[in-house]
Design goal:
Layout (H helix, E strand, L loop, with lengths): L15 H5 L10 H24 L5 H22 L4 E11 L12 H15 L4 E4 L9 E5 L1 H4 L9 H15 L4 E6 L20 E3 L16 H9 L6 E4 L2 H10 L18 E4 L9 E4 L2 E4 L18 H14 L8 E3 L6 E6 L5 E4 L10 E4 L9 E5 L8 E5 L5 E4 L10 E4 L9 E5 L5 E5 L5 E4 L10 H5 L5 E4 L9 E5 L2
Helix pairs in contact: 2-3, 4-7
Length: 496
């Protein structure tokens, strides 16, 4: 999160296409897709293993052959997983103050592409590649007018404006769940900031404008984005920071001359390093403090020292891949998250019978049940979807237009078969929802608290409409584990 500095990359940017197109060797080796396939194969193996325990003797040879074939497929996919690449889109947001056009961050799409091209050189060690489409309005480029976001600097916990800016930024990141969000902002002072920050506790990377990152006489800090993305993907600084050699020597004496006092990241591949500001722009590869030599890691992306090129170690690469998997876990699910448009209102339609969510009787009371009825267009059948932030990023509050109350799992909210009602918003886990989209556009409405999904009450099955559900003129809605049935599948249809 600390502002970072680094060297200028000397190579010229020749082509935007070169910066963004994935290498041909990696085009068919997508880790997200491979991981989804591996999970599917393992699920099938588990089902076959169970089937073998109860199958009739004459059926077992065929089941065993299927099992062996799947094991061979799994071995092939595991081998592919050992060499696959993660490809991640970034979404760039150019920020100005709330009065549009004032103190706008100095950044252009081609400059974002330059930074990304350099980051791709560094992150190749982790088999991670970033892509960026600069097309305004429909690509990976957006303008935002928000003074609090525009003033974001290094961490100021407790400061009201800073906390709001961070919350808005995390909220914005929730709209792009399969991307890394880059916020290019002006900074809090009259002059533009030249520093960036991020960490694993943020869902965004804060960056300055392109031309204000001067370092060691260079006109642009080419490795700044790669460094701040390192923090976003779990990497720490390699060093402990000091202004002068004397200050570093004094700190080392106080620590009993133990070199570990300068260990910034706990990774044995990056030896303890004192970052001394007065040595930043020199050429020394080693400095001696109190008779102890310390390497200066000028070539490591998480060091502040000036160097001609930057890279990461194998252990740093492992950390990055682990955090990519953690941040983008939904991309490895069989289905992905859907982010509805919070500015619109929706009807929630059952694929099983075409009926829609409705607050029974148009009630405004807590505990009024949600039922399925024919569409009439009344307010009790219309819903607003409000995105949540911070740790709940990617989840939504589902609000009745008629009552202003929120979709809530009844009771403790954890039981299978628990009905869905409306209730006053209390930010309870039983009121938070995720929209999981299948390959054909169908949706599961997943409860954040239980990871169960919503279905027609009494109508969960694996095929067509349930007899019990068909006899109910206005069945309710309940949560249960996903059984793959059409009674648990929905669509969102905008009504405005």
């Amino acid at each position: 999160m600390t502002p970072s500095r680094g060297p200028l990359r000397g190579a010229l940017f020749l082509s935007f296409a070169l910066a963004t197109a994935p290498p041909l060797a990696h085009a068919q080796s997508d880790c997200f897709a491979i991981t989804r396939e591996i999970r599917g194969i393992r699920d099938s193996l588990a089902q076959l293993r169970n089937a073998l325990t109860t199958a009739a003797p004459e059926a077992k040879p065929d089941l065993q052959k299927q099992f062996s074939d799947l094991e061979a497929q799994l071995a092939t996919k595991d081998a592919e997983a050992a060499t696959c690449w993660y490809t991640i889109h970034v979404h760039a947001v150019r920020v100005s103050d709330s009065c549009a056009g004032q103190r706008t961050a100095s950044i252009l799409p081609d400059q974002v592409a330059l930074w990304i091209a350099t980051a791709n050189e560094v992150y190749a060690a982790a088999r991670v590649r970033f892509e960026f489409d600069p097309t305004p309005g429909k690509g990976d480029w957006t303008d935002l007018h928000d003074s609090d976001v525009n003033r974001l600097s290094a961490e100021l916990p407790g400061d009201v404006a800073w906390e709001r800016g961070k919350s808005v930024a995390n909220d914005l990141a929730a709209r792009y769940p399969q991307k890394t969000l880059l916020l290019f902002r002006h900074g809090p002072d009259s002059g533009a900031t030249g520093v960036g920050f991020s960490s694993t506790s943020y869902n965004f990377v804060a960056m300055p404008g392109y031309a204000v990152t001067t370092v060691c006489g260079d006109t642009q800090n080419a490795y700044l984005l790669a460094h701040e993305m390192g923090h976003y993907f779990g990497l720490s600084h390699t060093f402990r920071q000091f202004k002068t050699r004397g200050a570093a020597a004094a700190a080392l004496r106080k620590a009993g001359n133990k070199p570990a006092a300068f260990d910034g990241d706990g990774i044995d591949e990056t030896p303890p390093e004192p970052y001394i500001e007065e040595l930043q722009c020199g050429a020394e590869a080693v400095t001696i403090l109190n008779g102890i030599p310390f390497p200066l890691l000028r070539g490591n992306v998480m060091s502040y020292y000036h160097g001609a090129t930057k890279a990461m170690t194998p252990r740093q690469a492992e950390t990055v891949r682990a955090w990519v998997e953690r941040r983008f876990a939904d991309a490895m699910d069989a289905a992905g998250s859907l982010i509805p448009d919070e500015r619109r209102s929706y009807q929630i339609v059952s694929l099983a019978n075409g009926k829609v969510f409705e607050v029974e009787g148009g009630s405004k009371d807590d505990g009024a049940r949600i039922r399925l009825t024919d569409w009439t267009g009344t307010a009790q059948q219309i819903w607003r979807l409000r995105p949540l932030t911070a740790r709940d990023a990617g989840s939504f509050q589902i609000v009745s237009v008629a009552s202003g109350k929120s979709l809530t799992v009844e009771g403790a909210g954890t039981a299978e078969g628990a009905r869905v009602v409306q209730g006053e918003w209390e930010a309870k886990a039983s009121q938070k929802w995720r929209f999981v989209q299948g390959s054909s556009g169908e949706l599961m409405l997943e409860a954040k608290q239980t990871r169960m999904v919503l279905g027609i009450a009494g109508g969960v099955g694996t095929g067509g409409a349930s007899p019990r559900a068909s006899f109910a003129s206005a069945p309710g809605v309940e949560q249960s584990p996903d059984k793959g049935g059409i009674q648990q599948r929905w669509r969102l249809l905008p009504v405005d």
